[in-house]
Specification:
With 203 residues, the protein is α+β, with helices and mostly antiparallel strands. It has helices at 7-17, 48-54, 58-63, 69-77, 97-101, 107-111, 117-125, 135-144, and strands at residues 27-31, 37-41, 90-95, 128-129, 148-152, 158-164, 167-171, 177-179, 185-187, 190-195.
Length: 203
C-alpha cells in the first residue's frame, strides 16, 4: 500500500481532530486562493461563518488528493461527484488508489466503459452513507449490536461494520473486508473515511 499518497490526509486528520479548551486553538481545513488545502486556526479567520464557507465539499476534498485519483475519476464518469458537491450530508468510505489496484487486471478500465455504467453506479453508491456519522457513532452502534452493525448505503444495500481492536472493518455483501485507515475527515457536507479495499455489492 502506498501510504505516501495519503500522507496529507493523515496530517489533516490530526489537525482536524486537535482541539483545545480555548476556541481560538481549534483548526479547520480550508482552501487557499490557489485551491490548495491548508489548515488554519479558526481565530485566524474573521468569523466562524467565513470558515464554514471555505471548507471544501467532499467532492472537492478528494479531487485535490492524488491518492484518490481513481475514485475521483470513477465518480466523475457517472457524475456522482455532483451529488457529493451539494448541500446534503454524507459519510463516504473512499478507497485509496492501492485498493483499486488489488482488483483483477483491467477491472477498473472495464467499469469505466459506458456500457458498464449501472454496475459502476451500484459500486460507488455502496461506499456512501446518506447521512453524517462519525467513527464514534459507528463504534457505539457496533457495541449495541453485539459486535457488528449493518449500514444502509446510498444505493439501498447494506455494509456490515465490525470492530477489531481500535480499527473498524467493513464487510461487503460478497464477504470481502476492508479496514478504515483514516476517519472523520470533515468536509462541508459530511465525513470522509479512507478504506484499503473496494466494497462490492451483490450482483
Amino acid at each position: 500500500m502506498n501510504y505516501r499518497s495519503v500522507l496529507p490526509i493523515f496530517v489533516l486528520s490530526v489537525l482536524l481532530l486537535t482541539t483545545a479548551c480555548n476556541e481560538s486553538e481549534k483548526y479547520i481545513v480550508t482552501k487557499d486562493e490557489n485551491g490548495k488545502l491548508i489548515a488554519q486556526k479558526i481565530s485566524d479567520i474573521s468569523s466562524v461563518k467565513e470558515a464554514e464557507e471555505k471548507v471544501p465539499t467532499i467532492a472537492e476534498f478528494i479531487s485535490l488528493d492524488k491518492g484518490f485519483s481513481i475514485f475521483t475519476d470513477a465518480l466523475k464518469a457517472i457524475e456522482l461527484d455532483k451529488t457529493l458537491d451539494n448541500d446534503g450530508q454524507f459519510t463516504i468510505f473512499a478507497p485509496i488508489n492501492s485498493a483499486f489496484e488489488t482488483l483483477p487486471e483491467g477491472a477498473v478500465e472495464k467499469l469505466l466503459k459506458p456500457e458498464n455504467k449501472e454496475e459502476l453506479i451500484s459500486i460507488l453508491k455502496y461506499h456512501i452513507i446518506p447521512s453524517k456519522i462519525n467513527k464514534q457513532d459507528i463504534i457505539i452502534a457496533i457495541n449495541e449490536g453485539r459486535g457488528s452493525v449493518p449500514l444502509r448505503t446510498l444505493g439501498g444495500t447494506l455494509l456490515t461494520a465490525s470492530l477489531k481492536g481500535n480499527s473498524i472493518f467493513l464487510i461487503d455483501e460478497r464477504g470481502n473486508g476492508g479496514k478504515l485507515i483514516t476517519t472523520d475527515l470533515e468536509a462541508s457536507n459530511g465525513f470522509i473515511n479512507t478504506i484499503d479495499a473496494v466494497m462490492m455489492p451483490k450482483k
